[in-house]
Structures are given as structure tokens and as C-alpha cells.
Specification:
This protein is mainly α and about 350 residues long. Helix content is about 45%, strand content about 5%. It contains twelve helices and eight strands.
Length: about 350
């Protein structure tokens, strides 16, 4: 089982964590593992699908809310609109999507060749490998044209919180790759939403939100909801760190729960583009391009020393032998680590903004 949740603990430990999680509803709900939207089990708490989704662990919605609270990061980065920047960088030329770019040509071909070689290394045939490469190129180049075409149609086509101001008929000229690596028109999605809900789709709206049905993580460009302080890093360097002091996962987890810190809070979320060409236009990091679902071990490693300080702060309090003194120390430690973790998130966000474009890789 993954260390991103307490599935590898005893049933009693699982229930103890879930009970602590559910005991503090609202913004003070503590959480440090991923659980999926709209599902429920012993260790996966159902997120409400009410008219207004406000569950504090709905990290995708928290990520979008944070983006909408700071539109300058995505809409007018460094004072320039996205279409203007796309034109300056050569992605849009003469009012049309420009396919004569490094990302569309040699860059895409290079990654396609990597996929071919990795398929061969798995013992697959050359036919399978070539199919894998071709499927990737079709999907990627389709996404490239689709994403940039929104900007051709509307200068605000990528803005957070925006509803495209063009008719669905115009979207019949927009084609892109879907998960099955086919090119298709997206016009029907728009016309269906307008017919059902009386309004055009909103950029970056979460697909499963009842309050604002969305088109998913492909619209208006491929994007991810990035935990600034990664779940895997927190699990590895704080909860699961092996020491010789007899303090284990569950004892540390209890202190973290007491702190009411939630790893999915808005302050620990940042919406990031997945495609390199989008990231260049936005001057933001590209979040693990080409590798959906992969972890960014290099990025996570940068948190090791600071998270080790969090673990040490917890362990010092738990090591106190006197029961009353230990209780007071644990309460103080819980407050301290919450402040430490929140500061870590703020610093990580600012670092990404200051660094601008680069690629966060696995």
C-alpha cells in the first residue's frame, strides 16, 4: 500500500486517524494523506457533492480557489496577457497557431523517441513501440493546437475564472488529443453544457463539482493541482522516518492531527501547467510533463532538512517521560509544527514564482 495514506496500519489505527479527521469539520479538519473525491472507505473519506463543495480536503477545488484569488499569477504574469506573450514567444503568428516551434517539432519527436525506446526495453515489439510513439505525438500535438487555439479565439481564453466569450460553433475548429489519443472536436462539450446549465464552461472548473460543472484538467490547457509541500515528502521525512527513540508513525500522526494542519489547504496548493509551451508562456514551472501520475522525487528531496526539523520537534515533545509535562509539550509542539509547515508552504510558493519557468520532473 502507498504511504500516502494509513492503509498499511492496523484497522484500529486506521479508524483512529479517520475519527480524528472527521472530528474537526470545516477549515480546521486535519489531514496529511490523499483520499479521492467522492469515494468512501475505512481510510478514504467521502467529500461532499453538495451544491457548494467546501470540504477542506478537496485539494483540486482549493487549488482553483487559490488561483482565482491571485489571477495576476495566471492571467497577466509580469504585466502581459497570455496571448501577447504567446505571440512574442512565437507560438501564435499572424493570428494563427504556429506549429513551427521547438516544442511541436523536435521537442515532441525527442519525447516520442524516448517512449519508443522505453516500450522496446519492456520487451514489446517494434510495431507496439511505433504505435506508442505515434499515439503520443498525436495526443501531444493535438493538445498543443487545442490549448493555443483558445487564445487565438479569445485573448482571455486562458484566464482563471473566465468563461469563453465565443459561440460553441467556433469551437468546431478546435481539435485536440484526448485520453485515447484521438483527435476530436470539442464543440459538443460546450453546447451540451450551455444547454444544460445555461452558461458557458468556466476555465479550470472541477469536473465533479455540482456547483460549477467543469470540463476537466485539459481545459483550457493541461494542468495539475500541485501540493507545494508534497504528501510523499511529509510521509517519508516526518511520519515514517526511522529513529531509535521508539517513537513511531501513529504517535507522530496524533500530534499532527492535534495541530489541525491540513496538507490540502489552499496555502499548500498551486495550480501549475503540465505542458512546457504553456509553462513558458505563463513563466511558471511545468509540472511533470509527459508523465501523468509520476512523483517528483527531486523536488520532494528539497524538503528533507526542513521536514526533519518538524519531526524532531514532535519527537522531543513525545520523549518527555512525565505525563503531564508531555501533554503540555505536545500541545505546544502541535502549534509550533503547524506554523512551521505553513511557513514552508508560503516559501515554496514564492520560490516557484521567483524562479519562473523550469521543469519539475520525477
Amino acid at each position: 500500500m502507498s504511504e500516502n495514506n494509513p492503509n498499511n496500519r492496523s484497522h484500529a489505527d486506521q479508524r483512529a486517524l479517520v475519527n480524528r479527521h472527521e472530528r474537526n469539520p470545516g477549515p480546521n479538519r486535519p489531514c496529511f494523506w490523499k483520499h479521492n473525491y467522492g469515494q468512501s472507505s475505512d481510510t478514504c473519506i467521502r467529500i461532499s457533492q453538495s451544491e457548494t463543495d467546501t470540504h477542506s480536503c478537496h485539494y483540486q477545488e482549493n487549488s482553483v480557489d487559490k488561483a482565482e484569488a491571485h489571477p495576476e499569477v495566471y492571467n497577466t504574469r509580469k504585466g502581459k496577457g497570455n496571448r501577447q506573450k504567446a505571440e512574442e514567444l512565437g507560438y501564435i503568428r499572424g493570428g494563427q497557431v504556429n506549429n513551427d516551434t521547438e516544442e511541436y517539432t523536435s521537442g515532441a519527436a525527442q519525447v516520442g523517441e524516448q517512449k519508443l525506446q522505453s516500450t522496446l526495453a519492456q520487451g514489446k515489439s517494434m510495431v507496439d513501440a511505433l504505435r506508442k510513439k505515434l499515439n503520443f505525438l498525436n495526443a501531444y500535438r493535438g493538445r498543443y493546437g487545442k490549448s493555443l487555439h483558445w487564445l487565438v479565439l479569445d485573448p482571455q481564453g486562458w484566464d482563471v475564472g473566465y468563461r469563453a466569450g465565443v459561440s460553441s460553433e467556433k469551437f468546431r475548429n478546435v481539435y485536440g488529443g484526448n485520453k485515447k489519443n484521438r483527435k476530436r472536436s470539442f464543440a459538443n462539450y460546450f453546447s451540451e453544457l450551455v444547454a444544460r446549465f445555461g452558461r458557458r464552461p468556466k476555465n479550470f472548473a472541477i469536473r465533479k463539482s455540482v456547483a460549477e460543472p467543469g470540463l476537466g484538467q485539459w481545459y483550457p490547457y493541461e494542468h495539475d493541482h500541485h501540493h507545494l509541500l508534497p504528501v510523499s515528502a511529509f510521509q517519508q521525512y516526518v511520519l515514517n522516518k526511522q529513529t531509535n527513540n521508539g517513537i513511531d508513525y501513529m504517535k507522530r500522526a496524533a500530534v499532527v492531527m492535534k495541530s489541525t494542519w491540513n496538507i490540502h489547504h489552499q496555502e499548500n496548493m498551486m495550480m501549475l501547467p503540465r505542458e512546457v509551451f504553456v509553462a513558458r508562456i505563463l513563466d511558471l514551472p511545468a509540472h511533470i510533463p509527459w508523465q501523468s501520475g509520476a512523483d517528483h522525487k527531486g523536488y520532494s528531496l528539497t524538503f528533507e532538512k526542513r521536514l526533519d526539523q518538524v519531526r524532531a520537534r514532535i519527537d522531543r515533545a513525545l520523549a518527555i517521560e512525565n505525563k503531564r509535562e508531555r501533554h503540555e509539550a505536545v500541545t505546544k509542539a502541535a502549534n509550533d509544527i503547524k506554523s512551521m509547515l505553513e511557513a514552508m508552504s508560503r516559501k515554496a510558493r514564492q520560490n516557484l514564482l521567483d524562479d519562473g519557468f523550469f521543469v519539475i520532473e520525477s
